[in-house]
Amino acid sequence: MSQPHIIIAGGGIGGLALGLTLHQIGVPFTVYESVRDLKPLGVGINLQPNAVRELFDLGIDRSALDRVGVPVREWALVGLNGRDIYSEPRGEIAGYNWPQYAVNRGEFHMLLYRTLIERAGPGAVQLGQKVTVYTRHSDGTVSARIQDREGTERLVPATLLIGADGIHSAIRAQMHPDQPPIHWGGAVMWRGTVWARPIRSGSSFVGLGTHRHRMVIYPISHPDPDTGLAMINWIAEVTYDDPNARDAIGWFRQVPVSDWAHHFDGFKYDWLDVPSLIRGSTSSYENPMIDRDPVQTWVDGPVALMGDAAHAMYPTGSNGASQAIIDARTLGAEILRHRVTADALTAYDTALCGPISQLILRNRGAGPFGLLNIVDDRCGGVFDDIDQIIAPQEKAEFMAGYKSAAGFAMDRLNAAPPMIAQGAMLTQ
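Structure (tokenized):
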């Protein structure tokens, strides 16, 4: 090949963040996305301060993020009787140099897409094109077989191939043909949004209930100046003791709220009426809480995995999208160090595969919601004085351990140099 070129399989959040990073450092690339028309899909997600820092360094600023979400001011866990278990400030008011954002996942995805097309041109993202198979060559390069929506296939050569093709990744399946099936532990989620008045700080992320029966509630828009209403994202979760008892569970299907809302009829408090909140929604989406078992490596020579293809994890830590962005930036940093070579992918793998594999397992064990597990085990989620159930020091140590594992421990993050220095470019 006359010059290096990277194929990115998948135009989700991770693939687009990698495209923006490669454009920033001057590396040619093409994103191939199987969907024919990108549309704003999904509801709320959180972007942790470590990911927001990288977005700022990519030139995606506060004003852009404010159009698709809202800075988070508080993170709180509340027991089954509506009393606080733990709360803390988040983002800049907590002392971070960068905010945490709760965003509309679909609108954020489209923001990344529009930004990439504006910067790199419309040919940077090829829609309706799916990478199905890769072939490694003796000279260290790779070819990707790409299939369009009509079934026509062609081979496209590249220096490197990055699989950002999600939890059902064809690239991961080829790299790890003996991987276990997708893991489901019995938790079912129903997701939706509703226009309502924000609670607590006005921009609080609240986990309410027990680890087996809970709600997650937070705003993903600024309040309307006239009505005071904001778009509130909610997630309702129930865990079944026997996953096989729920074999009819749908995968990301739309269902009536009335099918499941009765599980939360008792979630009424003087500060929040959950039944009214969820019944105010026009629709809900049902899906299992799923992940994949960690693998030993994300790399096969000139091929690497990133995002959900590498580390699909339970959304209990609000860091799936954040980690995909960190993956992209880490790949960019290693390409600057090692050029467009398999050595860059090996360095990326060494930096992230091990610790993020541990994070998958930590999230499977409830992640930061593990405090709900502890309180549930000790008192069933009902208490008068939380300090008699779990000491403040124990709570603080638990949360500090999770933040460190997830890469957003405040002191370490604030002191870290930029992953990619401003103006850094790969010289040919």
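The first strand starts at residue 6 and ends at 9. The chain has a mean pLDDT of 93.
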